[in-house]
Amino acid sequence: MTKILAALKTLLLGAVMAVSLQAHAQAQAPIKVVYHMSEGIAQASRAVNNIRNHLAADPTAKIVVVTHGAGIDFLLDGATNANGQSFAGAIGDLSAKGVGFFVCNNTLVSRNIDPAKVAMEAKIVPSGVAEVARLQAREGYVYLRP
Q1: Phi and psi of 72, rounded to 5°?
Q2: Which of 99, 123, 102 minimizes the C-alpha distance to 51?
Q3: Up-side HSE of residue 144: CA atoms within 13 Å toward CB?
Q4: Which residues contact 119 (CB under 8 A, 6 or more apart)?
Q5: pLDDT > 70 fraction of the chain, expressed in percent and rounded
Q6: pLDDT-based confidence at 22, cuts 50/70/90?
Q7: What does the pLDDT read at residue 39?
């Protein structure tokens, strides 16, 4: 009986240590977030501010912005906010901090927009909504819509 209790105690201690190590590893993994944008310039302005605040609070966060529809507008050459300020500086700054920007090719095609007009920091993906779904389902990204 003593041997069984000792073995159970050892197994229990091992299980507690394994769970503790797993929790510690998960606590250290960066949070992955996808900001979904489809509404245009006003939403983009909110998102830029949200992302800046997000990175200030958690510099380790892995953030991507996926756009489609009117959401791509701030990533096009010459895009400005409601105050006439260019988005180019904010996009460059956030990109330098590791933020990824993705533009829906379906939107470019349907709106007849030349891909060369997309900000150099952005990557074109076949479908914005499919990219959001993929990031959530396969890569564990948290979904935010500013």
Answers
A1: -80, -15
A2: 99
A3: 19
A4: 75, 76, 77, 87, 88, 91, 101
A5: 82
A6: low
A7: 97
In what order do the strands lie in the sheet containing 62-67? 122-125, 100-104, 62-67, 32-37, 142-144
* Other beta carbons less than 10 A from residue 67's beta carbon: 29
Q: Tens of pLDDT along 37-83?
A: 999 999 999 999 999 999 999 999 999 999 999 999 999 999 999 99
Q: Is the dihedral of CA 51, 52, 56, 59 positive or negative?
A: positive
β-strand 122-125 against 100-104: which pairing, if any? parallel
Backbone phi, psi, residue 112, to 5°? 55, 50
**Nearest residue to 61 (alpha-carbon basis) of 90, 37, 93, 33:** 33
As beta bridge partners, residue 62 has 32
